[in-house]
Specification:
Elements lengths: L2 H9 L10 H13 L3 E6 L9 E6 L9 E9 L16 E3 L2 E3 L7 H12 L10 E6 L7 H9 L3 E8 L7 E4 L2 E9 L3 E2 L9 H19 L13 E9 L5 E2 L2 E9 L8 H16 L4 E10 L2 E2 L5 H10 L4 E3 L5 H4 L5 E5 L13 E3 H16 L1
Parallel strand pairs: 3-6, 3-7, 7-17, 8-16
Antiparallel strand pairs: 1-2, 2-6, 4-5, 5-18, 8-15, 9-13, 9-14, 10-12, 11-13
Helix pairs in contact: 1-3, 2-3, 3-9, 5-6, 7-9
């Protein structure tokens, strides 16, 4: 089958992170089995939905239980939720050679390319130790990949992680970190504000301090990235119980995307220092900082074999990506880690999501060229 045919079928399978990924794995396994590949499933329990798994696949003639392998192509199977107003999210639409739908580029397009790749080349073209790994729950913290690596002693030499990079090999990527910050106050009737402590007012002071921290982080740059520095974002905030009550609590989520050169706890330590300074200035200031995710960035040397092979096969220079990916989990155990795939991430996570059919066909050709080297 052509990659576009696989992608059409994959988009129609609901696979948001809240659902089981079993139907998608069933489709992938059936396609691989028909091409002579072997597969093995590894449960990936989720308290909210226990029917999730990771799927490992090996080409004909290669023992799937071998741990030391040459090249692993990693592809997650979940998508982010889509708005109810996007009524055609699971109905693929082809417009001017571009296929639209939820997951079209993030990252079912790459999955479709892997399945199309498995259909065609003879076993002689496979490197010794080629594996496909399809993971659960990437969109909610790379949980599937983390669970797999914690329970399976895979030792890859090279790892190719599927994400939409417009077919550029991405040899470096920022990390992804998240913390929940809860600012405490004391409730009181708003007619007597001196009896209370406004958690919202104190949170505003912390937010101003974090804005200054963001400006300080922006002074350390790496021009290989766009934007070139570690970035901060306050994505959600909520607090208070009623308009006539001094708010006793305000909570927000802080995310940051660190450069690979940033020490793992640099931003977290800086946030704690901001809170300590506010407490010294006003002993009534109090907050809890709970780290939820600490995923570092990664960087593979420009002269690495996989980077050079992808540059030669694609005719495109290596780039850096500003978003987190499963590459951060595999980089510590692999000699070389690169992110690559069809489509543009700037269309993902929205009703604009799409992938050019030409990208799909070219991605398959690039995979064949790289695995033949």
């Amino acid at each position: 089958m052509k990659p576009a045919d696989h992608l059409d079928a994959l988009i129609r399978i609901p696979s948001v992170s809240a659902l089981s990924n079993r139907p998608l794995l069933d489709y992938a396994a059936a396609a691989l089995h028909s091409a002579g590949w072997s597969t093995q499933r590894f449960p990936c329990p989720d308290p909210a939905n226990p029917d999730k798994a990771n799927l490992l696949a090996a080409p004909p003639g290669q023992p799937i239980d071998a741990h030391a392998v040459d090249l692993v192509c990693v592809c997650h199977t979940d998508t982010v939720p889509f708005a109810p107003s996007w009524t055609g999210a699971l109905v693929p639409r082809l417009l001017d050679g571009v296929l639209h739908g939820c997951g079209a580029c993030d990252v079912k397009g790459f999955l479709a390319c892997l399945l199309a790749f498995a259909d065609a080349p003879p076993p002689a073209s496979f490197p010794s130790g080629l594996r496909f790994l399809f993971t659960a729950d990437e969109e909610i913290g790379c949980r599937g990949a983390a669970h797999f690596l914690a329970h399976y002693p895979l030792r890859p030499r090279r790892v190719l992680v599927g994400e939409p990079t417009s077919l550029h090999p991405a040899r470096a990527g920022k990390g992804y970190c998240l913390a929940r910050i809860t600012v405490h106050g004391r409730e009181a009737h708003s007619a007597h504000p001196a009896q209370g402590i406004s958690a919202i007012t104190h949170a505003a002071r912390l937010l101003l301090a974090l804005d200054a921290l963001a400006a300080d982080l922006a002074r350390t740059t790496n021009p290989f990235f766009d934007p070139p520095s570690t970035t901060l974002n306050i994505g959600t905030i909520e607090g208070g119980t009623a308009k006539n009550i001094v708010p006793g609590r305000c909570q927000f989520q802080l995310e940051w995307r660190p450069l690979p050169s940033d020490p793992a706890d640099r931003v977290l330590d800086a946030v704690r220092a901001c809170a300590d300074r506010l407490h010294l200035a006003d002993p009534g200031f109090s907050c809890d900082i709970d780290p939820l995710r600490r995923q570092p960035g990664f960087e593979t040397p420009a002269d690495a074999q996989l980077v050079r092979a992808l540059e030669a096969a694609s005719g495109r220079p290596a780039v850096a990506i500003p978003f987190g990916s499963e590459a951060s989990l595999f980089a510590p155990i692999a000699e070389e880690t690169v992110v690559f795939g069809p489509g543009d991430m700037r269309t993902a996570h929205s009703p604009r999501e799409c992938v050019p059919l030409a990208d799909l066909d070219e991605a398959v050709a690039i995979l064949r060229a790289v695995t033949a080297m």
